[in-house]
Amino acid sequence: MRETRLDTARIRAARPMIDPMFLDTPLFPCPALEPHLGCAVSVKLETANPVRSFKARGTELVASLLADGGARAVVCASAGNLGQALAWSGRRRGLDVTVVAPRSAPAAKLDRIRALDAGLELVDGDFDLARERAAAMARHHGIRLVEDSLDVETCEGAATIGLELAGAVPPYDSVPPYDAVLIALGGGALASGVGHVLKELAPGVEVICVQPLGAPAMTLSWRRRRIVTTGPTRTIADGVAGRRPIPAVLDDLLVVADDAVLVREESIVAGMRLLLDHAGLVVEPSAALGVAAILEDRDRFAGRRVVIIVCGANVDMHAYRRWIGAPPP
Question: Would the pTM of this model clear 0.90, i.e. be above it?
Fold first, then answer.
């Protein structure tokens, strides 16, 4: 395999630095989904933890390294999940965390960031404008800017999911019982991290990235093998709604991703509904992208064994009920 920024030895070494509550998440078959999707689906559940997303794997690693190095303050931009995870990891290690988020981010995510004692600054605009503001704050105050996906630690923290999928942690299993993994694609930390490990340890597994049609920047960049910046995003999947891909992350994805696909909003909603009705899971839109991809290309996945990484469950419940057509409580 060609080189990426990631290193499998470092990824293995990251596990002891991550609170065990975020590791070894359930991976279970969901046969109730098979009649609706036409393939055998297993769910890797990254939401059964205090921050309800996979992001804490990365922030645990980042915060551990920063605290060991004597840092006392950090700032990040976030659509909600990274900010919540960094607030959790930073608070445990005595770091002063500031999160810059779009004012339009789901209220549930913003409320949880505040509840974890992080400073929160809201900007009028999207995630990319929040990222610019966070960078300016870091320069002004001389503190560390944590950049999801650009900081390789966020990718290598997420990559510990790949170790688990590849059977590379106890109990060891050298032959994964699936042939494709569907991964939500936003900034790229999850896809590049998991993809790196699978390509090295389970190269027969197809790595497929999934992004909303209304936020296609990274997918278009992957397809054209160069950075493509897009206009305003139009998707309910706020967790993956970036417009300006990071060149270094694209370079990694070009090595480890077998495909990158775009899905429609109605398929994302249908995926959320299927996960609720047949897996008992309330998920945010980004976590339903894998199901959406199967719904839109059933022939490709027919009869296959597929893993879907359920990456986040921080969703505004009023919006959720509206999307899936559930009556209010």
Answer: yes
